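Q: Structure for this?
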Amino acid sequence: MKFAVIVFPGSNCDVDMYHAIKDELGEEVEYVWHDAQDLSGFDGILLPGGFSYGDYLRSGAIARFANVMKEVVKAADEGKPVLGVCNGFQILLEAGLLPGAMRRNEKLKFICRPVKLKVENNETMFSNKYDKGEIITIPIAHGEGNYYCDEKTLEELIANKQIVFTYQDNPNGSLNNIAGIVNKRGNVLGMMPHPERAVSELLGNTDGLKLFQSIVRSWREAHVTNS
Amino acid sequence: MYRVKVYVTLRESVLDPQGNAVKNALHSMNFNEVEDVRIGKYMELAIGKTDRNVEEIVDEMCKKLLANPVIEDYRYEIEEVAVK
């Protein structure tokens, strides 16, 4: 399976993401610059964290109009897995690939620490290696992770089981403790916590690795015979 | 040309944590008459000659980029100015 890590000016978790895929997951991966015109050679798209375009105006607001985003939308329409982490999640929201928006953290602080998450839905292509209700520890690092959507959207998210991860102890004021959601089709996941920072035994936490393994497992089941 | 002032604020229904912090600070300074503070963004745009309706352009820019309609409201003032 071949992944693209999209790099915007100001991305800063692209190297972690690349490392997670190449060295810990053991799959193919390439960096793709924000003005790329073609993502057809990739099976999965990863939008890393950081501060694309300096977070000017709003987080993700300017990145959403980068050239490559047309291709990201196309990949999502084709059913390819698209994962946005942290700033990547914010970009997916601004791009309308996921519903809702991010507000400043409730306590106005930038929070950088490991948090406990609950796997609410383990039937997505991003979470099938986890148990339902499994509690995992994944680091967060954000100042704007306070998820918001209107009541109608929230009802839909719940009804369609689009809430994949919730915070056990809500760090940022996020609506319904939401840490990560998928689109209706289930192939676009946005999450504030950083699974790519929790993939190595050496660094003391591998809880994020199963997320990437889930993607590969779904892809193999769909694309490889005798898998 | 036109000078455009755009004001973007969080929607009434969305809690403004920054505004709340500032309101509390004002209260602690004994400005107890302050009932609410909403913090927003102010932008100035200079728009050159165009065949299109300026208000239409500004509204489109606000909807697409300058504000996020999910959490923000916007308003704008357009002033036509003579080019020197």
